[in-house]
Amino acid sequence: MQDVNTTLAAYTRAQLISCFLIGLIVILTAAASDDPWKALYSAIFLVVLRIIHDYVTYPRIVRGGIHLHPLVIILSVLAGEQVAGIPGVFLAIPIVAILTVFYRHVLEHHGRRGLISGLIDEDGRMPEENI
């Protein structure tokens, strides 16, 4: 359970840090703005920042805490959206992270390297009794 807690804490921490930084940029821009065009530029900047954040920095931040490849994170979010809509988007990464932790514990407990490691001999052939 400690591993699940650590994984979910890293996911939540990444969300909080990103929201804080984006909010800080908006507040500072709005405070310094006298021209309405600056607000438009700020909005465009925030859209570009959000795109960069969602597809570049966020997967790397989350990967560091939950040890998932950025492609797995993006694909899990897309799959979560297809399966459960908006709630699936928010729940996809924690669910995949928990499943990954459980999978690692199963492998550690059974002392195997993968799901099919017991089905294949050391030379790469399938034993006759497992076919």
- Please tell me the total number of domains: 1
Content-based structural category: mainly alpha
Total beta strand runs: 0
Low-confidence stretches: none
Taking the alpha carbons of the first and last residues, their distance comes to 36 Å
The gross shape turns out to be elongated
What is the N-to-C succession of helices and strands?
HHH
Beta percentage is: under 5%
As a percent range, the share of helical residues equals: over 70%
Mean pLDDT: 73
User: Helical region count?
Assistant: 3
Layout of strands and helices, then pairs:
Elements: H1 2-32, H2 36-66, H3 70-110
Question: In a nutshell, what does this entry contain?
Answer:
The chain is mainly alpha-helical. It has 3 helices and no strands.
Q: How is this structure best described in words?
A:
79% of the residues lie in helices and 0% in strands. With 131 residues, the protein is mainly α. It has one domain (2-130). Helix 1 (2-32) packs antiparallel against helix 2 (36-66) and helix 2 (36-66) runs parallel beside helix 3 (70-110). The longest helix has 41 residues, at 70-110. The radius of gyration is 21 Å and the shape is elongated.
